[in-house]
Amino acid sequence: MKIGVLALQGAFAEHISVLKQLGVTAVAVRLPQELDGLSGLVIPGGESTTISRLMLDYNLMEAIARRAEDGLAVFGTCAGMIVMAREISGNSVPSLRLMAIRVRRNAFGRQVDSFETPLEIPVLGERPFPGVFIRAPFIEECADGVEVLARLDNGTVVAARQGKFLATAFHPELTDDLRLHRYFLDIASGE
Fold first, then answer.
1. CA 51-48-186 angle, 5° bins
2. Has 78 been annotated as catalytic?
3. What's the distance, Cα to Cα, between the start and end of the chain in Å?
4. What is the topology classification, in CATH, of domain 2-188?
5. Considering only CA atoms, which of 77, 39, 80, 48 is closest in space to residue 164?
6. What is the pLDDT of residues 131-175, one digit of tens each?
7. Among residues 14, 15, 34, 78, which one is catalytic?
8. Catalytic status, residue 171
9. What is the pLDDT of residues 59-71, one digit of tens each?
């Protein structure tokens, strides 16, 4: 299996490292032709406006959307979730519009408001998952067909799946827990 990681800005090296630990071929994606032959694509955390602009500059926005329509699995973390959303509250950041979700950028505040918390994610088993939130967004609304995978204790949605699309408001690549990436590999392989 070959998984691409969008490598324009943000935490792409960390995702590549996790994927290699799981024994898959992980490649950096910076140009549309580098999408060829991929089973899945990870869009990392970083700065969503910068990622979106660079995707437009490098003709990746349309190329990724087209591949996603053709069945490419896509996993967005933090800024990646924003880039995947159909709607972004109070913002005009261009997005792929892959997932039927509305997200709010920097929903928990500034960098100093970053936090970690254990998350119950039933699809990963009983053991809590370490949620690392850095200038994180959250999901305000999910349309029909979107499965909520995780919420904070106050009910805020922080992870969701829609078919072959997976999105988290947090950074699983910054932990030693490989379960979420393994779950994405299962999605990408059609399980």
1. 80
2. yes
3. 13
4. Rossmann fold (3.40.50)
5. 39
6. 999 888 899 999 999 999 999 999 999 999 999 999 999 999 999
7. 78
8. yes
9. 999 999 999 999 9
